[in-house]
Amino acid sequence: MSLVFAAFTPHPPMLIPSIGKEAAKDVEKTKVAFEKLEEELYLSRPDIIITISPHGSCFADAFTLNVCPEYETDLKEFGDLTTKLKFKGEMNLSSFIREAGKERGISTTMISENQLDHGVAIPLFFLTPHLPNITLLPIGFCEQDSKLHFDFGYLLKEQIMNTNKRVAVIASGDLSHALSTDAPAGFNQAGEKFDAKIQELLSSRNVTGLLNLDKQLINDAAECGYRSLLILTGILRDMNYEYRQYAYEKPFGVGYLTSHFVI
Description:
The structure is a single chain. Helices cover 37% and strands 23% of the residues. The protein is of the alpha/beta class. The protein has a single domain (2-262), classed as Protocatechuate 4,5-dioxygenase, Chain B (3-Layer(aba) Sandwich). It is globular. The mean pLDDT is 95.
């Protein structure tokens, strides 16, 4: 039927109450932004949610389509053995995406992994409590260039528009992991430049600038959300949308950006 919702979200484990505990207050802006997105996602009445995560299976030359009848979140790597969410899988759309990929020369690989990585689990924990009947299609990016990710996004857009379902897209990714000396990647001055540039390009809808972002800057920033954004931007190609940035903060030396692309 159509694309009804699109957002870019971070995935800080500290947002989960059983993980973050007292440290959860350090990501309060992101939590409030998630609450706003949750309401807007609910109002969009999606049938299918496509997620894009940097932390699932990643192949050198093929995008991944994770097709499984049921999924379950798993946050045990963060010491959380109790937070468990279950979702039904979207079993049809992936076949159309794969066939379209063959026609365009864009490689996709179908996998079937029951457990959802934290890049998917954390946004869905906050965004889907009132959407028990949605089906899920997790997608992962690859190691190819920026243009191919953008083109893959446009391919997804065409298949989304051809389905008779209402589709939401949640692109998950953090920005720089090098914003302070105690950051996961240590400090690098490229981190601040990268995060500022991403926000500038998104707010001005400068797709060309996003596609041509300096590769050394991207690498030095130690990000994990750039390719998620490229795919999302490809999905939004030729669409009339309003960009709304709901939050940006950088506790723990990591940049967390939460945005809604209002369609």
